[in-house]
């Protein structure tokens, strides 16, 4: 966990939970085939390790799109929206994003008291989910020059192999995402694309995790393992 002026950012790894293989151990995803009781326990363990009440953590049904929901309080289980970014001005409410190769994007303007969490896979990055989240923050009083951005573990451009036509399609939208694998084939670098988008929006305080989920045995990777768990990123304000 890291903190900046009362804004807190945290990313999990796969250890310290109760899930059995292939979800071992700290799987936080509820739609990957794991035992629901194990997921519930894992979410409680992760929240408490961060000093959070599990009831104050807000999740979303992620669908690889550009839509954003403004959060005023915890959802009822039947009301969880199908979106890929959450924004709130409520202090103490933690926004959570699930990933297993996609880029978890955490954003905060501590002065305005606005935070956001976004799920930026290749489709979401192309669709503009991160700019949409920033625009929603601005509508709630944030200024790009004050926004702090942290992106977590994700598959890197050296490992995210795609067909040549897909690389061309993605890089036509976001040139910074153009990449080549370490073995010389077409690739996409979603993290680079996200950071380029944030740069153009005027977000200067940015940090990118150096962890590649595909390469790290301490992290879940869908591209590597297919049947696997989900990591989480959390952002909240005191």
In words, what does this structure look like?
With 238 residues, the protein is of the alpha+beta class. The chain has a single domain, classed as CNF1/YfiH-like putative cysteine hydrolases. It contains 6 helices and 13 strands. Strands 4-5-8-7-9-12 form a 6-stranded mixed beta sheet. Strand 7 and strand 8 form a beta hairpin. The radius of gyration is 17 Å and the shape is globular. The model has no long low-confidence stretch (mean pLDDT 97).
Structural topology:
Blueprint: E1 2-4, E2 7-11, H1 36-49, E3 57-58, E4 68-71, E5 85-88, E6 94-99, E7 103-109, E8 114-120, H2 122-127, H3 129-139, E9 148-151, H4 164-173, E10 178-180, E11 186-188, H5 190-200, E12 205-208, H6 222-225, E13 231-237
Parallel strand pairs: 3-6, 4-5, 9-12
Antiparallel strand pairs: 1-2, 2-13, 5-8, 6-13, 7-8, 7-9, 10-11
CATH architecture: 4-Layer Sandwich
Written as H for each helix and E for each strand, in order along the chain, the element string is EEHEEEEEEHHEHEEHEHE
Strand order of the largest sheet: 4-5-8-7-9-12
Beta content comes to: 15-25%
- Tell me the name of the CATH homologous superfamily: CNF1/YfiH-like putative cysteine hydrolases
What's the number of helices? 6
The counted number of beta strands is 13
Query: What percent of residues adopt helix (DSSP H or I)?
Result: 10-25%
Poorly predicted regions are none
Largest sheet: 6 strands, mixed
Cα radius of gyration in angstroms:
17 Å
- CATH topology, anyone? CNF1/YfiH-like putative cysteine hydrolases
**Rounded mean pLDDT score:** 97
Overall 3D form: globular
Instruction: Give the CATH level 1 class.
Output: Alpha Beta
Structural class by secondary-structure content: alpha+beta
Compute the number of structural domains: 1
State the end-to-end distance: 14 Å
